[in-house]
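Schema walk-through. Below, the input block comes first and the output block second. Nothing else is stored per chain. Lengths vary across the set, and this one has 93 residues.
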Amino acid sequence: MALTHIGDALKSLSNTGRLKNGLRTAQLDTIWEKMMGATIGRYTDKIEIINQTLFVTTAVGALKNELHFQKELIIRRLNEELGETVVTNLVIR
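--- output ---
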């Protein structure tokens, strides 16, 4: 049996499908508020990534409109924060 450093083992484990998606989901709220600011973070009800699509839910009409105009920038900045291309589309509900 080969010896592996604990950091390497955790990195390998965190790159498996379900665990990787769960870690991204946990990071998403923090990244969203850091990226968009506390005010937008407060008025965003739900954020999730499903099949490379970011779904953002908010009840504020003006915020929906503003997010719609910023789609490309949001996708680009979120992928930069995550360090890889995770999101290719944005849906605002």
